[in-house]
Amino acid sequence: MNACYTCQLIARRDANRASLWDNIYRTHHWDIVHSYDTALPGWLVVVARRHIEALDQLSDAEAAELGVLLRDVSAALKEVTGCLKTYVVQFAEHPRHPHVHFHVIPRMADQPADRRSTKIFGYLGVLPEERIPEAVMNKIAEQVRDILLSR
Prior knowledge:
By secondary structure, the chain is of the alpha+beta class.
């Protein structure tokens, strides 16, 4: 089995075994999903479909598609959540996720000061009881998908 959990999630999407929140929108090179362990509604992730571990490994086609996709996902999040803007972050440092992926995070107008900028990661990796319910993630996913499909 592949040690990269992100690759396992992509395989699940490829096999049509993913929930809506984990399969919002797919392009030739990228998957859009809702983060599964967050307390912030609308925390989306743009995931490279091919296993790569650093930005310099992107193909020209992956890089070209990425810019437009980040813009479109940010615009969709703004429309769905009412956020002021989005933060876009990429590390690929987690031992289970050594795979290029971009966090696209809504920055809300009423975001507490202690959850702005890099402190927004306080919303990620939370306990199960603090996580966004699946029904909420699916509702956001459906709205974002509809917007992206209309572009």
